[in-house]
Amino acid sequence: MKTLISRVALTTLLSTTAIPAYAASAADVAALRKEIQSMRQSYESRIAQLEKKLSQVEQVKTQPAVAARPQQASVAPAAPSRDIRDNSFNPSIGVILNGQYRSFSEDEGDIAGFAVGHEGERGKEGLSVEHTELNFSANVDDKFYGSTTAAIAEHEGETEIELEEAFVQTLPGMGLPTGATIKAGRALWTLGYLNEHHTHADDFSDRPLPYRVFLDNTFNDDGVEFTYVLPTNFYSEVGGGIFRGDDYPFGSASGDGVGAWSAFARVGGDIGANQNWRIGGYVLSGDGNRMSNEDVVNFIGDTRLYVADARYTWAPTGNPHEQEVLLQGEYFWRNEDGTYEDTDAATGLVPFDDHSNGWYAQAVYKFLPQWRVGARYSQLISPSVPAGLAGSALDSGGHDPQTYTLMGDWTNSEFSRIRLQYSREELAQGHKDNQFLLQYIMSIGAHGAHKY
Fold first, then answer.
1. CA–CA separation, 441 vs 429, rounded Å?
2. If we measure between CA atoms, which residue out of 322, 421, 312 comes closest to residue 374?
3. CB 437 within 8 A of CB 102
4. How far apart are CA 318 and CA 6, in angstroms?
5. How many alpha carbons fall within 13 Å on the CB side of residue 319?
6. Which of 164, 188, 218, 394 has the most CB atoms within 10 Å of its CB?
7. Whole-angstrom Cα distance, residue 51 to residue 57?
């Protein structure tokens, strides 16, 4: 190999060198031979050096690579952006650590005029490991994706493990029309904006009053949902589902195991290059025996919940990683037709056919890549109480509960966030609770990106 390269180099050199035509003497021939020999040795030395370098490069390529975590050069957006849906069938395993410290100025946190499930109640005071999540996700094959999330939390002094999600979802290879998806199992279903998201992804440490009262924080019943993104020039999606009806706001399934249904439609789009928006309308309907406030207040009958949501984002600099403004709000309207019973007040079964509503609005401003501030207001409008329920937990005394919340958080990366929050809750007449909260949220391992 070396000899061949040397000959090629020498031939090229001679072919490109102008040699005058003259009659060469014996001395001239000897001098020329000596010069050629010197050039050959020089080229062979250089070729040997190049071959040595090539051998070193090949050895490095065959050695196993050592993974080094790159230094954080820039901060990721507030919402995690890792995608776990194309992991070649290898399970993605993640853990979310959520610790808090709370301080309250009032001993009680009951919401006057409303029966609330235990998830919607005020958290406990002091230090606590509030909510730890374990998530396992992977493509099952070329047609299905699966995910399971188990939530570990403490309630009334006991550690509880709750199956928050366990579902399968079709992939494009399933053969459904483009934009169509079917999800089956237990999941955070499409209802308003926040319900599809895990609570650790929220912009505030707790959910607003309508979610606490109407959904016991989240609706994640067992069921099947169909969604279809329409082939339009702007974002438009429709869908619906059927559910067992065991989860709040229902409480027990009917005889055939289908006790609730939902439907929704939403649209969205961009405004120029730096702004986008989305609005939606939703309905959730079912019947059952709903028990709340530690089984003290019971409702038996039909419940129908209507929700409207709107969201707007704006990146002032054109880069949402640097600065971003988020405006968001939801409105809830609930109608109930059945009977209420307050066992503490010994009211018996009292007919009830009325509605209640609530709403919240919030604004969050990311003024630096790692820092955000936000404000939120939420309110409930209490229903009229029948005479048979006067003086019970459902009697608000004419007061409409409301909450004011301020927060500031620091996001070191998409894996860690620390938040400070202040809330003033006025949940009953003459009840003003000043709450301070310090929270950390840490993500270990893989975790899927949250929806818009």
1. 34
2. 421
3. yes
4. 58
5. 7
6. 394
7. 10
Through-space distance between the first and last CA atoms of the chain, rounded to whole angstroms: 61
Tens place of pLDDT per residue across the chain (452 aa): 444 444 444 444 444 444 444 445 677 767 777 777 777 776 676 777 776 666 665 554 444 443 333 333 333 334 333 344 555 557 889 999 999 999 999 988 889 888 888 888 888 899 988 789 999 999 999 999 999 999 988 776 778 889 999 999 999 989 999 999 999 999 999 999 999 999 999 999 999 999 999 999 999 999 999 999 999 999 999 999 999 999 999 887 555 678 999 999 999 999 999 999 999 999 999 988 887 766 677 888 999 999 999 999 999 999 999 999 999 999 999 999 999 887 776 667 888 888 999 999 999 999 999 999 999 999 999 888 887 778 777 888 889 999 999 999 999 998 999 999 999 999 998 899 999 999 999 999 876 666 66
Tell which residue, 286, 312, 318, 280, has the closest CA to residue 299. 286
**Closest-CA residue to 376 (of 393, 361, 394, 354):** 361
**DSSP at 36:** H
Give the tokens for residue 217: 């924080």
Strand ranges for 293-396 from DSSP E: 297-314, 324-342, 350-368, 371-381
Supply φ then ψ for residue 146, to 5 degrees: -130, 150
Cβ pair 120, 217 in contact under 8 A: yes
Q: Token pair 């419940």 is at which residue?
A: 303
**58: helix, coil or strand?**
helix
Domains of the chain: 92-445 (2.40.160.10)
What is this structure's pTM? 0.79
CB atoms within 10 A of CB 397: 13
Determine contact, residues 425/435, Cβ cutoff 8 Å.
yes
